[in-house]
């Protein structure tokens, strides 16, 4: 900054250079993290001259908390907004002052993210090595079910099994992802009025099985309308090299470490003795398919 000036001065120089060379007016959001910069861009910079805005932590009460529409906020859609309304949260001020434990209980990792975003906090690490597009293929598994699944719990079980498999692959390749998505295909598209749906959410970079399962279940319930399901998929994108464990504010360091150790132990046992050597409890429930599929060749009967 000693060389080029303040953030605002640098932004002005860039805007002027782009306009002088190409005749294009550019807008710039400036913040102490990517979230604040994006919110500044969308809610202020795009609306009036000088087409730039700066949002900082100390301005959160006069910026983020003044945003009324939850559905337009980062990572919150109309369905999630309705669920927040149902527990007395109607705007960003309410969200910032809500019970963090309740949000975590109701929404899992998304609840954590929503709470911190309402305070302008974003843990995105722009210095973390990001894999180029050619390498950043994403990790995912999908499954065509052998029958129609109409019970939410059965669908949850399959989603959990697939999420477990995807998380294991991430750990095997020593990578993590921060965009989790699910795909649901309906058994009868004509009856449902659509072939299915997809949904995704951004989370802190992770390769933990529990994180993927919570996100997958949340995304499923956010859009499922009760129609019979025949195809299920879970995918993780925005891949980066796995870094050190990021502690949750809702779990002790000891519990976090225990969860990581559990994942690693299960991975080692499966590598030595096969997938069926150790399975999670939900794989014994009705609707589970992982144990049977572990004996198939390429997911099919040999």
Automatic annotation (TrEMBL):
Residue stretches making up the UmuC domain: 2-41
Source organism per UniProt: Lacticaseibacillus paracasei subsp. paracasei Lpp123
Listed GO CC annotations: cytosol
UniProtKB keywords: DNA replication, DNA-directed DNA polymerase, Mutator protein, Nucleotidyltransferase, Transferase
Record domain DNA polymerase Y-family little finger: where: 137-249
Molecular-function annotations in GO: damaged DNA binding; DNA-directed DNA polymerase activity
Family that this chain belongs to: Belongs to the DNA polymerase type-Y family.
Protein name: ImpB/MucB/SamB family protein
Transmembrane in keyword set: no
Any one of the GO BP annotations: error-prone translesion synthesis
